[in-house]
Amino acid sequence: MKQKTQLELVREHLEAHKSITSWEAIQTYHITRLAHYILCLRKDGLTIQSEQVKSEGKWWVKYNLC
Q1: Is 51 a member of any domain?
Q2: Residue 7: is it exposed, middle or buried by C-beta count within 10 angstroms (0-12/13-18/19+)?
Q3: pLDDT: which is higher, 1 or 57
Q4: Residue 15 and residue 30: Cα distance in Å, rounded?
Q5: Which end is more exposed in the chain, N or C (fewer Cβ atoms within 10 Å of the end residue's Cβ)?
């Protein structure tokens, strides 16, 4: 059985859950270059919005599939 690429994992996660953060990508798939894969998916035609989130004085980006 062929192992899925990291790009495929990110695409499938977005399609199933509609959003992903870097922390989710690291914890779930051990992916540390999420922004790169988001860029690739945008180039492939997916509409993905970046949302800045702040909690307890910390900022991160949540990527939302539109």
Answers
A1: yes
A2: middle
A3: 57
A4: 19
A5: N
29 in Cβ contact with 20 (< 8 Å): no
CA-CA distance, 60 to 53, in Å (whole number)? 5
At 23 the pLDDT is 96
Q: Determine the Cα angle at 38 with ends 6 and 36, to 5°.
A: 70
CATH assignment at residue 19: 1.10.10.10
Domain extent for 20: 6-65
Give domain status of residue 10, yes or no.
yes
Number of domains in the chain: 1
Tokens of 66: 């539109």
- Which pTM value belongs to this model? 0.91
For 19-65, write each residue's pLDDT tens digit.
999 999 999 999 999 999 999 999 999 999 999 999 999 999 999 99
